[in-house]
Amino acid sequence: MTSHVRWGILSAANIAVKSFLPAVKQSETAVVVAVASRNEEKARSFADEHGIERAYGSYEQLLQDPDIDAVYIPLPNHLHAEWTIRAAQAGKHVLCEKPLAISEEEAARAVTACKKEGVQLTEAFMYRHHPRYDQIKACIAAGEIGDIRGLYANFTFDKHTDTDNVRFQKKMGGGSLYDVGCYPISAARYVLEREPEAVAVQAFFSEDHDDVDMMASGLIEFPNQVGLTFQCGMWAERRNNLLIIGSEGSIEVPSAFIYDPDNRHFYVSVKGERREVEVPEVNHYTLQLDDFGRSILEGRSPRFPAEDSLLNMRVIEACLRSARNRERIHL
């Protein structure tokens, strides 16, 4: 192993350009040495544009490169588990975009494969690496807002006219619960440090978008009679916020999941007084990348181990079943 983690990127996806590569530039642990696409010309063009040494015309070729330590997988959702398993079998550590899979069973196979091959695996929920979530949890632990009574979260945007988008392909793991609903679910589990007991979800399945859930509203029931009420959508006004309601106050996170440097602070309200809590301006993708990189270089577990992905996938799958069948699902 070198002093840095040598990365390969499986596909020239837009998120690799907008999020992963900028994170690498700020990283203390990462270098990108290769990119792969099913189109070699596209891979070469991507590599040339971003100063990447090697370009491959297939994902298999990249996985055979002995100089690559880890791979970043920003493929469509239905390919996440398959290529995580293939990467593990090739001895590569894996940072996989969320969701890790499109079913709990698929996610379990991916986690098992990585354990068997002795490689690290983590799901790319970058938001929880930002220090503001540690600050939020510290406020809660200190009792500033009393006992948590409930959480309310929204993560919506409008892309309904982009009909070729993979998010609108049912067989490819499309739909708002997979794409953005996974964030409020993950955040509630992280903040509460508990697992849900039941879910009830209503969704709008669009015939114009391959019958995927374009909007969903749900209630996730946690122990101690605490609930997460959430909305997620891909055909709605843009929203991205989290509200934690306590017996004595509340915490508002205006830009909860997609980080906005100009709107990064959060607010604590207690007995009618509202104060702004300042948080540092940092790249949470870089923090995620370096935590994972150090787990590889130091031979330790990443901050958020792969087992968390199984638990989140269980809830997402239950939400989809609840929405399809119009029933409350016990977990």
Automatic annotation (TrEMBL):
UniProt keyword terms in alphabetical order: Oxidoreductase
Annotated family: Belongs to the Gfo/Idh/MocA family.
Gene3D superfamilies: Dihydrodipicolinate Reductase, domain 2 (3.30.360.10), NAD(P)-binding Rossmann-like Domain (3.40.50.720)
Domain Gfo/Idh/MocA-like oxidoreductase N-terminal, chain residue ranges per copy: 7-124
UniProt key word Oxidoreductase: yes
Pfam short name (any one): GFO_IDH_MocA_C3
Classification via PANTHER family: OXIDOREDUCTASES (PTHR22604), TRANS-1,2-DIHYDROBENZENE-1,2-DIOL DEHYDROGENASE (PTHR22604:SF105)
InterPro entries xref list: Gfo/Idh/MocA-like_OxRdtase_N, Gfo/Idh/MocA_domain, GFO_IDH_MocA-like_dom, NAD(P)-bd_dom_sf
Superkingdom of the source species: Bacteria
Protein's UniProt name: Gfo/Idh/MocA family protein
All copies of domain GFO/IDH/MocA-like oxidoreductase, residue ranges: 133-252
Source organism of this protein record: Marinicrinis sediminis
